[in-house]
């Protein structure tokens, strides 16, 4: 029997292929019937929300791996910067956000989870760091800028410097 994580991974494969996320497309990708997908995810919206949660779980695991299990919000922010600038980015992360009917709901869900990791950011330097990381994530998924790892590493150093300035004042 196909498990929920296998179906969610199949959904990501559909998105990576540039295809529209549908129950039929996911069923075909994982080699089960549409009712097999519907057994776990009753609607396309339920599937899309579960895919976002699946992605966020993977991001959270990566951030904790980079920052350590007892990480503070600032440690997680630094890990986020490092991940978005130096880690592997997956265009499938953004594909779901482009779904017109679900964009607002999925974006809000993504924001709630990410904001829980970093807390409320009031210092403009930390906000700049968050915006650097968010921009890097979008850019690397879309492939707009041609910044090699050396240049991206330099940006990480600038972001860390901003974080240090915020910490010492």
Summarize the structure.
This protein has 169 residues and is mostly helical. The chain contains 9 helices and no strands.
What does this 3D model show about the protein?
The chain is mostly helical and 169 residues long. The chain contains 9 helices and no strands. Helix 4 (44-67) crosses helix 5 (73-86), helix 5 (73-86) packs parallel to helix 8 (124-142) and helix 5 (73-86) packs antiparallel against helix 9. The radius of gyration is 18 Å and the shape is elongated. The N and C termini lie far apart (56 Å). 25% of the residues are buried.
Shape: elongated
Mean of residue pLDDT? 92
Distance from N terminus to C terminus (CA atoms, Å) equals 56 Å
The low-confidence parts are: none
Please describe the topology of this protein.
Layout: H1 4-16, H2 23-30, H3 34-40, H4 44-67, H5 73-86, H6 92-95, H7 103-118, H8 124-142, H9 149-168
Describe the structure using short key phrases:
9 helices, 169 residues, mainly alpha
